[in-house]
Amino acid sequence: MPAAIDASTRGDIVYYAALGYSQQAVADAVGVSRNTVRKYLELTREIVEDAEEPRECLCAVLEGTYDWNARTGSEEIRLDFMSM
To answer: What range does the domain containing 40 cover?
Structure first.
């Protein structure tokens, strides 16, 4: 997991990236490292692609209401199910 940041900062990262900012420009604007930006963008892409409702999921990330901790539990369940 990348460096812990608050939900508002996560939303800002995704917002600036959606506007077309480079990862370095996003990092500079938000005040985190470029590596943290890259990792959170990767995580966001993964959760949105895996979501049943991608648009709602992306909106939750942008609004800061997405529960990042719940993601870990659902992955473990999915992995257990797939191994059956």
So the answer is: 7-82
pTM of full prediction above 0.70: yes
- Residue 31: both structure tokens together: 């005040």
Instruction: Establish if 2 belongs to a structural domain.
Output: no
DSSP state of 2: P
Q: Which amino acid is at 78?
A: R
Residues 19-46 have pLDDT tens digits of 999 999 999 999 999 999 999 999 999 9
Instruction: Give the chain's largest Cα–Cα span.
Output: 46
Residue whose pair of structure tokens reads 């997405």 in the numeric block: 66
Q: ∠ CA 46-47-52 to the nearest 5 degrees? A: 120
Residue with tokens 């990092």: 27
Looking at residue 53, which CATH number applies to its domain? 1.10.10
